[in-house]
TrEMBL record, chains A, B, C:
This is Metalloreductase STEAP3. Residues 29-116 form the Pyrroline-5-carboxylate reductase catalytic N-terminal domain. The chain crosses the membrane at residues 206-226, 254-277, 302-323, 356-376, 429-451. One of its GO terms (biological process) is copper ion import. It comes from the Eukaryota. It is found in: Endosome membrane. GO terms for molecular function: cupric reductase (NADH) activity; ferric-chelate reductase (NADPH) activity; metal ion binding. Its main location: membrane. Gene3D superfamilies: NAD(P)-binding Rossmann-like Domain.
Length: 484, 484, 484
């Protein structure tokens, strides 16, 4: 970067509009209006990035003690006069109190960092409102997605993206280069009319998790009720047996794996649907239906919720022998065995069934935990595409297959035992098997040479119709959006 | 960046002091004195960032084989002559051996990358000592916080911050831009007198973890002894029963949840205290007492230690039925039941108590594990402030509430059973309930409209006293420091 | 950065070769040939980084709908004409179809972003092939290691490194600065002949994991068979007992800890060997043998596989009492106890043995889980070298010691019980103890003052021979490569 002394004179003669001045350099003075926590953290970070900082406060004396020693704390007018780029770190309600500074601020860049407490609380965004108050200033919306905490804790921590929008391209670039110097990564969001969108970003609450969590909740409710009817209500109504004590642990333990298993199959269903869609259309250049696109975007979250349910299921299972009820039943069974004088109660088939499904369950959980770890941003970032695909697609499918075997050995021959059909309701595990088995069969079908070759060609750009003698590159991405 | 050929001549005429020359560009030559591991890693990284590298070694022939082929390995004088910016990658003890290079090095930038093995081992920092040896050079302290490993493994890995200090602002900026080109994020630490502080940074040993781990250790000791007296010593002294075998597993299993539970409440106590403090003072512009500030900074670590103890408690619990002792007791109980001819030993109340507290315990652990995952830097960075607050504050508090229910159902009516007061000591769980219940009640009180409105206004800058007709922005940060 | 308008005229007169023009600035126009997924993601990211984008498509009308509104989609010739730097996002097979653009593209920079589907599929790299088609262009290989997904999801996510190679240093620097503006970290890979290597990078499949996973697999096979012979085959052949039901769970449960324990000792063995090697040679300037170097690089992966096996072992152990077989055995034992009229089957020694080894096992797993968490990139990055060393070396060794105690208490006196030598095979645990005990003893020996002093001096650069009156800095790195 060329030192500012040389460049500025050249540019100042260029019209005098501050927005078109040269880039910011270390050593330049940055102004901040306001003395709250955000202002303090901003000052600290600017100083440690090598800038000079002037803070404009209503009450400089009182505020000075709150700021780092290197920051100059002065009155608002003085601070506005001293810098060309000024952060406005004041609540929207108090923007109007700055009107007196209009003349001093004219032709300078004002950076609006404010956030709202609710989405779309006002008609116009805070930044646009600021722009109407100071028509002679260039207003830039930026840094609102960064928390005071992230500013203060330095570049090693905190969210690194800074969304920037402004009607002036030059002002945008200046603030972008400032953000870069501070260790953030600027994202250009276009004109100031995007400010509302930018202001809503920090108010989003885990948007990608809502549908997966909601869906998991509904599935949980359905399976819990279904199991309640079969396991608790049926023996109570038909035999008068009180098994309500099973509600807190045993019902949870047979409901959670159903949810986990169905969710896991929902992770791999869209890939199968996408392949079918591409095969039918004979091209990859037709957009997937919106619902399919949205589904594919949520796969990671669905998979993680599935893993969470599977892990809870494991915990519940492991708790089973610890419970008083298990102890009492065992003692009573021992008593019965002695009274009936049965030397051995060993049932070889039951033993094998359980040994196998327990072992398969552990292996499936082990694989799912690898998938979950590779979903952590810092782990996923260290993988190249092929590795990511191997883990998410190959390992994930094998987790699905092993879970299916786990379910099948758990079920054993019960699906064909009429006594298991309480109130004509089939055993729960039979319900959950439908989707995964469809997916596994379709996946096997896609391994057939005829289909596989066609799909590969389609994904490399080949098209069924006449147009397209040659095709564009889409290398990793097709796979990424359809295989994983 | 303007190519260096154009800029340098302009600047060279500017006085000739290298520290004020233009910024470094790809293709510039960087010197390194020393041929150890750090030197090798530094050379590798500089080369891959597009710079030319000259290494000055005492024994160029032997050293050449250790360096990448693109690095030029030559004598020390030659290397010093060829570059304007020279890394000194030599132990402090050997700085004096470089004295012969003083003339060649004059007016160049020396970057001191050395570390000490102990905190404050010498009177002056290594960098300041280097500056006294070469008064004609500009010494910059930098890159010491980066390990040879982080240098070598490329920018995707390793600590990314580089702390820089020097008495010359220009030299600081040059090294900062060099660090940036190499994929690091420079942090300006001011004048060279900060070098001591910078040299101590890599010697810190988990400073934020000392108090939480120490506190957890003390809590563990206290509760272990308390439980030992109640569970082992009391039956031994009063009934002569030998229950010392309970020390490795059962005592651990009842001690760990106490530690976890008290620590979890210590995470949420400072938030309550901060709110009370702000309400009493009627302003947020008064600093919290130092101990409260320090406590708030440690909350994440306290929470993670709490989760670790809770997870160990879960493992210990799950191991209970696996043990020989549990097996022998069961067999003996079965024997007793048969001898006493009791058909059923079922106790409905005991069954319900345990089913409920086991289920609540699993749910609490599940929520705590979500909190722990969101504490991972890469996960936390991907959250905006509202999401972080939701997870840490809402989910965290619900974990505290569910843990409290877990403890209460575990305790059931034992708090009121005189037989449980061994040596007049109340059951352990009653001790742990004090803090969490205070916190939960205070939290509920803060939901009352009168208090909530006042607190919200205070956090938006309102003040009780006369000064302050309007107030500064503190958006996310107030919440961040007081709610979470 | 100086705004492009000023710099370009200066440079254009410099020869006109686009590769030597000034750096790219926000607002510059970037061309993209191709309209696949990668092209779309690239356009999105370039736009959000503040550049203008012109996409050249065979069928602009159809493609336009697939691109963001701000991207201009036009014909290939037009796009090639409008930009100086053009991404070629087309499959290698179709490069030849671009021949018609040769004249328009002359003297421009072509960025080849293509990947292959197999390693070394063609004789020359895609980028070199492109260079032969367009001899008048400057071809740069870059961005192929970045997936379309990483491009689209913004700088907070995805792999951040971009490997760049080209025969023109200027073109390399221009693409490097472009990558930096987009939030990536450029890595200079030298001349275009490195393109093959760069193109192979995204095809690697977890290279560091192959040996550790393969080794773990072999160890698993060996120990599983060994245990099968001892636990299942021996009672079947000698006593006719059918214990094949133990294969899915019990054999897994005694095999996994053997694998985990041996792998854990393999993590700490190379450190001991390296110390011995340095002591014998009396210098640290002699390279370790290649196998030792490679072993040391794989330690993190070996440790994580070890932790995975240990965690599975814990799960299997916890499942033991849940199984039908455990239940049946317990019932039959109760029956037997009643028939034999044994009031108490309590064996104090067995109780103590199991309580202790269970507790030690849990503690060892807890420590290993801390090591595993600190291996996550984002956690490890936040640690300084001393902290990393403390966790990996001190905590890791204590995990090894506690695992050894766990194994010893598990084994108890069985190593000396002739009945335990089935087919003359010693109990499995005795096999696994060999390596760890050697390591622990050697480690203790290295704590002896005479050896420790010598080793410390060697690691600070001291040498046995005559040469080397003073020595170079290698601070953190030596320790890093030999202690950890």
């Amino acid at each position: 970067m060329v030192s500012s002394e040389m460049v500025k004179p050249l540019l100042a003669s260029n019209g005098g509009d501050s927005a078109s001045r040269g880039p910011l350099s270390c050593g330049d003075t940055i102004g901040i209006l306001g003395s709250g926590d955000f202002s303090r953290s901003l000052a600290t970070r600017l100083l440690s990035s090598g800038f000079k900082v002037v803070v404009g406060s209503r009450n400089p004396k009182r505020s000075a003690g709150l700021f780092p020693a290197d920051a100059e704390v002065t009155g608002q007018t003085e601070a506005a006069r001293r810098a060309d780029l000024i952060f406005v770190a004041i609540f929207r309600d108090h923007y109007s109190t700055l009107k007196g500074l209009a003349e001093v601020l004219a032709r300078k860049i004002l950076v609006d960092v404010s956030n709202n407490t609710e989405i779309n609380v006002s008609r116009e965004s805070n930044a646009e409102y600021l722009a109407t108050i100071f028509p002679q200033c260039t207003v830039v919306k930026a840094f609102n997605v960064v928390s005071a905490w992230a500013l203060q804790s330095g570049p090693a921590d905190g969210n690194k993206q800074v969304l920037i929008c402004s009607d002036s391209v030059d002002a945008r670039n200046r603030v972008a280069s400032l953000a870069r110097s501070m260790g953030f990564i600027p994202m250009d969001m276009g004109a100031l009319c995007s400010a509302r969108e930018v202001e809503n970003v920090p108010l989003h609450l885990l948007p990608l998790w809502k549908v997966p969590c909601g869906g998991a909740g509904l599935l949980f409710l359905f399976f819990y009720l279904y199991n309640f009817v079969r396991v608790v209500l049926h023996p109570y109504l038909t035999e008068g047996k009180n098994q309500f004590y099973k509600m807190p642990v045993e019902l949870m333990n047979i409901t959670l794996p159903c949810v986990a298993y169905v969710l896991l199959s929902l992770v791999y269903l869209p890939g199968v649907l996408a392949a079918a869609y591409q095969l039918r259309n004979g091209t990859k250049y037709r957009r997937f239906p919106d619902w399919l696109d949205r589904w594919m975007i949520h796969r990671k979250q669905i998979g993680l919720v599935s893993f969470f349910c599977a892990a809870l299921h494991a915990l519940y299972s492991l708790c089973l022998p610890m419970r008083r009820s298990a102890r009492y039943q065992l003692l009573n069974d021992a008593f019965k065995q002695v009274k009936q004088n049965v030397t051995s109660s060993w049932v070889e088939e039951e033993v094998w069934r359980m040994e196998i499904y327990v072992s398969l369950g552990i292996i499936a959980l082990g694989i799912l935990s690898l998938l979950a770890v590779s979903s952590l941003p810092s782990v996923g970032n260290a993988l190249n595409w092929r590795e990511f695909n191997f883990i998410q697609s190959q390992l994930g499918l094998s987790a699905l297959v092993i879970s299916t075997l786990h379910t099948l050995t758990f079920g054993w021959r019960r699906a064909f035992d009429p006594n298991r059909y309480k109130f004509y309701l089939p055993p729960t595990f039979t319900l959950t098997l439908v989707l995964p088995i469809i997916i596994i069969l379709t996946r096997c079908a896609l391994l057939l040479p005829c289909l596989r070759t066609k799909l590969t060609r389609i994904r490399r750009g080949w098209e069924k119709k006449t147009y397209g003698k040659f095709s564009d590159l889409s290398d990793t991405s097709t796979e990424c959006s359809s295989n994983v």
